[in-house]
């Protein structure tokens, strides 16, 4: 999964990006390394992995990972291709979801590009750039489709969708706010890869004092929450300054620090939870003497698709999967014991994989 961090200058993006990637890299037993300073890999904490690795005596644990991209420089005029504008927009096109950082903290020492703290206005500024870019794409597509229409009547339905999208965007609403009635329509809209169709998580950057009540007494946060609800996005409260401090701590210190602040989760956990929920993601697990590993899939993925996450050959040559629920495996103590109790199911290609399934795939090569 790839998340792009956007927001106006000076809202706390870099502070947040640096602390999240540093905090999340702590346990990074991860097979790739960072090549680009604007890209960071964060591992997804999952306590099940350690317990599972213990019963398999695994050499290593590989957690699921999220790639963060710091997309700085998205400013007014970006869609006109001014400066590096186009590059930022194409960076956004490649991500699965957007983390939009908005400033909800007052601090006279930190200059706001538009003079005052107003997250809704800031969100509109960024959204407008994305909307301009999408409208341009839609206009080109509408012209092309209209031309081909005479020869191919099936394009008429597409044209209706394209025009509806354009009208919505021109009213200032993002494409993701629209509802589609059929899967085909939804797939078509998805295929356009519009920037405003990307799922968004708003990270409201607050002062330390707003953490304990989760932003309930901060009107800016409340306004962003309401907006997020309206457009089916997610929002969470974070303090980039505090995240910076947290990223310097080891696990024990961190737990104590969070307790002092009166909170249970740091920004990274909140962000991971929000993105899994927004994108409908779950994890299944594989375990063996070599490694215990978590794999991220979309809810509803069937066994061959899940196998394909590991290797395309697993999907192509899929025969069956042996599946045991994590809790049942742990309660049994070993895989053999779980099997003897009849807790290991043999599933075919229509099996819908569940969160916490421990899977073993059988396949032809
Ligand atoms: P970016 O331009 O969005 O990447 O913003 P930066 O992360 O560089 O932050 C801009 C300024 O705001 C820096 O001086 C940060 O120290 C400050 N800043 C960032 N997050 C917070 C925060 O949560 N509270 C306060 N008071 N200042 C912050």
TrEMBL record:
Alphabetical list of CDD domains matching this protein: TGS_YchF_OLA1, YchF
Binding site for ATP: 10-15
Domain OBG-type G stretches: 1-258
CC cofactor: Mg(2+)
SUPFAM superfamilies in the cross-refs: P-loop containing nucleoside triphosphate hydrolases (SSF52540), TGS-like (SSF81271)
Domain TGS residues, every copy: 280-363
Pfam families named in the record: MMR_HSR1 (PF01926), YchF-GTPase_C (PF06071)
GO molecular function, one term: ribosomal large subunit binding
An annotated GO cellular component: cytoplasm
Keywords, sorted A to Z: ATP-binding, Magnesium, Metal-binding, Nucleotide-binding
PROSITE patterns registered for this protein in UniProt: G_OBG, TGS
Family affiliation: Belongs to the TRAFAC class OBG-HflX-like GTPase superfamily. OBG GTPase family. YchF/OLA1 subfamily.
Primary role: ATPase that binds to both the 70S ribosome and the 50S ribosomal subunit in a nucleotide-independent manner.
Official protein name in the record: Ribosome-binding ATPase YchF
């Amino acid at each position: 999964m790839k998340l792009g961090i956007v927001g106006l200058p000076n809202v706390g993006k870099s502070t947040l990006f640096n602390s999240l990637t540093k905090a999340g890299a702590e346990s990074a037993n991860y097979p790739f390394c960072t090549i680009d300073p604007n890209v960071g890999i964060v591992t997804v904490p999952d306590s099940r992995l350690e317990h599972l690795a213990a019963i398999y005596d695994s050499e290593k644990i590989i957690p699921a990972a999220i790639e963060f991209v710091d997309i700085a420089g998205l400013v007014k005029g970006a869609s006109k291709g001014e400066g590096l504008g186009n590059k930022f927009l194409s960076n956004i096109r490649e991500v699965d979801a957007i983390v939009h950082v908005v400033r909800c903290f007052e601090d006279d020492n930190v200059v706001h590009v538009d003079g005052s703290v107003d997250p809704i206005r800031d969100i509109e500024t960024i959204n407008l750039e994305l909307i301009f870019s999408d409208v341009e794409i839609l206009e080109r597509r509408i012209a092309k489709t209209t031309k081909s229409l005479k020869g191919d009547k099936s394009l008429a339905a597409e044209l209706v969708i394209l025009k509806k999208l354009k009208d919505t965007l021109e009213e200032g609403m993002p494409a993701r706010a629209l509802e589609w009635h059929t899967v085909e329509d939804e797939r078509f809209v998805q295929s356009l890869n519009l920037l405003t169709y990307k799922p968004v998580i708003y990270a409201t950057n607050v002062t330390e004092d707003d953490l304990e009540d989760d932003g309930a007494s901060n009107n800016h946060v409340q306004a962003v929450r309401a907006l997020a609800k309206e457009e089916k996005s997610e929002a969470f409260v974070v303090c980039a300054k505090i995240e910076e401090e947290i990223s310097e701590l080891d696990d024990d210190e961190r737990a104590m620090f969070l307790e002092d602040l009166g909170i249970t989760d740091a920004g990274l956990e909140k962000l991971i939870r929000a993105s899994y929920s927004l994108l409908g993601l779950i994890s299944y697990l594989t375990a063996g003497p070599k490694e215990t590993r978590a794999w991220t899939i979309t809810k509803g993925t069937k066994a061959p698709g899940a196998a394909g996450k590991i290797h395309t050959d697993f999907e192509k040559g899929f025969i069956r999967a042996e599946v045991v629920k994590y809790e049942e495996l742990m309660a049994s103590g070993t895989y053999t014991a779980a099997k003897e109790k009849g807790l290991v199911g043999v599933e075919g290609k229509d099996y819908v994989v569940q969160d916490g399934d421990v899977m073993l795939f059988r396949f032809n090569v």
